[in-house]
Amino acid sequence: MSEPRVLLDAESIEKSFKDNEVLKGITLKVHAGEVIALIGPSGAGKSTFLRCLNYLERPTGGSLSLDGAPAFTDPLGPTKAELLRLRRRVGMVFQSFNLFPHLSVLKNIVLAQKLNGLRGNLEAEEYARELLGQVGLDEKAHAKPAECSGGQQQRIAIARALSLDPELMLFDEPTSALDPEVGNDVLNVMRDLADRGTTMIVVTHEMRFAERVADRVLFLDRGGILEEGAPEQVFHNPSHERTREFLQAVLDR
């Protein structure tokens, strides 16, 4: 049986903010259909690494390839068209929901498709309704974001990201601003996506989710990958003392 294709190849990604070296040459290959969880202490570089993968932060060094081809023709920087293409293929869901408050839920999802030239109005609206059904929010189509709970807004943000038909979804601590009960609704949507074969990289402090849903867990500390492996190995038989310390601290809360 052949190995799944490498969808994204991040090679030696570095990022510095002036004299602060946040990422110290992270290399990661992501296979189609794989779910990867990034865990680690605050300040380890997890969110920065995620943002470098779709160039919301421009890496200081390293390279990105998609399907074996460089993401950008000029290593010194992407063109506007290349950035747009990358962000269509690599969708992102943030801690904050970033919805347009003056637009209805439906129009938030339709607008994303129209701005990216993917669908006309009728087709975009039909697809938006389908996605709202997937995240369990059909009845909120004509509500404004302020009329929705935090968990509902995050599910709407997921539907909006999915409307661009990304090949890879990035989640940056999507439940960190939510109380546990509401956060579970978001995690359930993410579990459903994983079950459908969606390729995902998730920065999370939800250790049970990481253990049960991820195919691979990466423990980041001080800007590098300290440990990497299957969930059962990382959570139950970690190789590094630093990993054990971190897991003991978070799991004993």
What report would you give on this structure?
It is a single chain. The protein is an alpha/beta fold and 253 residues long. Helices cover 38% and strands 25% of the residues. The protein is built from 9 helices and 10 strands. The protein has helices spanning 46-53, 80-89, 105-115, 121-134, 150-162, 180-195, 207-213, 231-236, 241-251, and strands spanning 6-17, 20-31, 35-39, 61-66, 69-70, 90-93, 168-172, 199-203, 216-221, 224-229. Helix 3 (105-115) crosses helix 4. The chain is globular and about 55 Å long.
* Main sheet makeup: 6 strands, mixed
**Using DSSP, what is the number of strands?**
10
In helices, the fraction of residues equals 25-40%
Query: What fraction strand?
Result: 15-25%
Q: Return the structural class.
A: alpha/beta
Determine the number of helices (DSSP H or I, runs of at least 4 residues): 9
Distance between the termini: 42 Å
What string, H for helix and E for strand, traces the elements in order?
EEEHEEHEHHHEHEHEEHH
Report mean pLDDT, rounded to a whole number.
93
Radius of gyration: 18 Å
The unreliable regions are none
Instruction: Please state how the strands of the largest beta sheet are arranged side by side.
Output: 6-7-8-3-9-10
Task: Give the overall shape, derived from the CA principal axes.
Answer: globular
Keywords:
about 250 residues; alpha/beta; four-stranded antiparallel β-sheet; 10 strands
Topology, element by element:
Layout lengths: L5 E12 L2 E12 L3 E5 L6 H8 L7 E6 L2 E2 L9 H10 E4 L11 H11 L5 H14 L15 H13 L5 E5 L7 H16 L3 E5 L3 H7 L2 E6 L2 E6 L1 H6 L4 H11 L2
Parallel strand pairs: 3-8, 3-9, 6-7, 7-8
Antiparallel strand pairs: 1-2, 1-4, 4-5, 9-10
Helix pairs in contact: 3-4, 3-5, 4-5, 5-6
